[in-house]
Design a protein that fits this description.
about 280 residues; alpha/beta; Rossmann fold; 8-stranded mixed beta sheet; 11 helices
């Protein structure tokens, strides 16, 4: 790890607007298996590495080509203040990224904002996505219908305008992402804290996430979804929207987790995902 960066430095590729997209990669694309695309959430300071460091190496050890990018505005990627941080933009950039690294088939593994991006990517490029894995995805209901009843969302809304960048305030915010606060370690804070300080406010003030409920029936590929029953950002009831609207969906609800099932129940999550990927 470079001592000047909060997370290990991976690779960079130039994308739309001359911006740099940072990503971690293990393995090489294969004609026999899809690549696995880990898509992180929108929490302040998030990155592909910090969200999925306990997951993507396991998938790589199982023989999969894995990619864990940082969206524009996150991690070690460029953070322009003059663009709209919409799911439309993220999907366009991710397609450009996948073309640049030679990936033609991909299984998105998306959490929160990453789940919304995964849904939009699948709807936009269905022939590229043979399977889909989601953890508490956004994009299933208009935020005005639920956001003001979610403690995590309210904490984030209070944090962002003044952005009190002191470690205790940042730790308290991250605490809303998990059921058991033991997962908010000093390492977790250090990986995100300096990234969050550098993020322009536009990453959040211009964020625009699509709502896909009425199009879920168009997704033909199998879906495996996870939700923590203690999620403070996206209600677990949204999981039933997936079950009711999608053609082939399985939902796992865990009463020991919050918004980060892939962190709080890591071994189970990894094993279930690999079993799902290996099914014919």
């Amino acid at each position: 790890m470079n001592p000047d960066t909060p997370i290990p430095v991976g690779k960079h590729v130039q994308v739309k607007g001359g911006h740099s997209l940072h990503y971690h990669e293990v393995g090489s694309p294969s004609a026999d298996r899809p690549s696995i695309l880990f898509l992180h959430g929108s929490g302040p300071g998030a990155s592909g590495y910090s969200n999925f460091k306990g997951n993507f190496p396991v998938f790589a050890d199982a023989g999969y080509h894995v990619l864990a990018p940082d969206y524009l505005g996150y991690g070690l990627s460029s953070m322009p203040a003059d663009i709209q941080y919409s799911t439309d933009m993220h999907v366009e950039v991710l397609r450009e990224f996948l073309d640049a690294v030679g990936v033609k088939s991909v299984v998105p593994v998306g959490n929160s904002l990453g789940g919304a991006i995964s849904l939009q990517f699948t709807l936009t490029y269905p022939n590229m996505v043979p399977k889909l894995i989601l953890m508490a995805p956004g994009g299933l209901q208009d935020p005005s219908e639920y956001a003001f009843s979610m403690p995590g969302v309210l904490a984030l809304m209070q944090f962002l305008p003044s952005r009190p960048f002191e470690v205790p305030a940042f730790r308290d915010l991250l605490g809303h992402l998990v059921h058991d606060k033991k997962h908010i370690t000093e390492e977790a804070i250090s990986e995100r804290f300096s990234v969050a300080q550098r993020q322009p406010l536009e990453v959040y003030s211009t964020m625009k996430v699509g709502v896909y409920r009425d199009r879920l029936h168009e997704i033909a590929c199998p879906i495996l979804a996870f939700w923590g029953s203690h999620d403070e950002f996206l209600p677990v009831a949204h999981g039933m929207i997936l079950i009711e609207q999608c053609l082939k969906a399985k939902l796992v609800v865990n009463n020991q987790c919050g918004h980060w099932v892939m962190t709080e129940d890591r071994e189970y999550f990894n094993a279930e995902c690999l079993a799902f990927l290996n099914q014919a």
